[in-house]
Amino acid sequence: MDIEKGIRFECQGSGNCCVSRGTYGFVYLSKKDIKKLSDGFKITEQNFVKKYCQKTDGFIHLKELKKNNGNCIFLKDNKCTVYKSRPIQCRTWPFWPENMNTKTWNNDIAKNCPGVGKGKVKTKKEILKQVQIDYENELNIRNKN
Q: Where are the alpha helices (DSSP H) in the chain?
């Protein structure tokens, strides 16, 4: 990985990023995420959370389907069924702050995400913008915003 030269990435729709690896795989939700998703379902935020979410350590996240190895509740046939209103955490994948070191990128992200190395090159500026969006979203989740 060389962020200075940019990174070639285009989602291949594998669903690999929608599969849990324990709490590491949870899709945590900010208030903005909950609003966008509940609007997409045309239900109240309270009903969305009640029907589709769980709380772990005080943080709201999407339910996972135990019968499907902990896959996201909205993953069907390796496709996201809420793609247009998907959470920020999903929109910014794989450009998360914790993924942006060479060791993590090469040993985890590039091996498990078939979109790495495909499509157009994302420039350093584009990558850093996604990293910043994800970072701010995580702060909002931690501050319950």
A: 31-41, 45-52, 88-92, 102-104, 110-112, 124-142
CA distance 109 to 64: 21
**Selection from 51, 137, 38 nearest residue 82 by Cα:** 38
Question: What's the predicted TM-score (pTM) here?
Answer: 0.86
- Give residue 50's identity as a one-letter amino acid code: K
Whether 144 has a pLDDT exceeding 80, the answer reads no
Enter the tokens of residue 80: 């996201």
- Mention every residue, 6+ apart, whose C-beta is less than 8 A from residue 55: 61
| CB distance 116 to 7 below 8 Å | yes
